[in-house]
Amino acid sequence: MSNTDLEIVVEDPTAPDDASPSVVSRRTIEIVVSLLLLALAAVLAYDNWQTGIEWDSTGPQPGYFPFYLSVILGGASLYGLIAALFAKGAKTETFVTRAQLRRVMLVFVPTALFCLATQLLGIYVASFVLISGFMRLVGKIAWWKSLVTAVVFTAIMFVTFDVAFDVIMPKGPLERALGR
Fold this sequence. Notes:
The chain is mostly helical. 64% of the residues lie in helices and 7% in strands.
């Protein structure tokens, strides 16, 4: 046996359980995504049709190319929809299990809240909360390490963007109180 035939397997103790129940099938997701893309294509086609999709004396009107791109998107969506509807065995194939969805939501929800918090608290305070929260709650890292890392990263971000490059970043009540 050569060294190239060896396989290194690393077990992930936090990996989702294989016995976790299915939340949604692959077929359902394919149908929903195809329908959403078909609806988007229809909206884009209508909007560009109203803008103008013909050739005039100076060339194509503004909606000409986007209209035909939306027609192509609609055709591809229809193909995907028909393929998903008539696929054999796709009904039972799992798209995501409950454990996998939980792990995705563990990242998605705090990130979505970070976007909202950035509007209310400013980017620096929201970044501090996101970094320290992720490190402590998801990474199970000690509070003091989480807080130190968040402070250092936020300070570096502040000095880089606000001081050195004078980039306009979303500010919150703390920055306004400090006169920045």
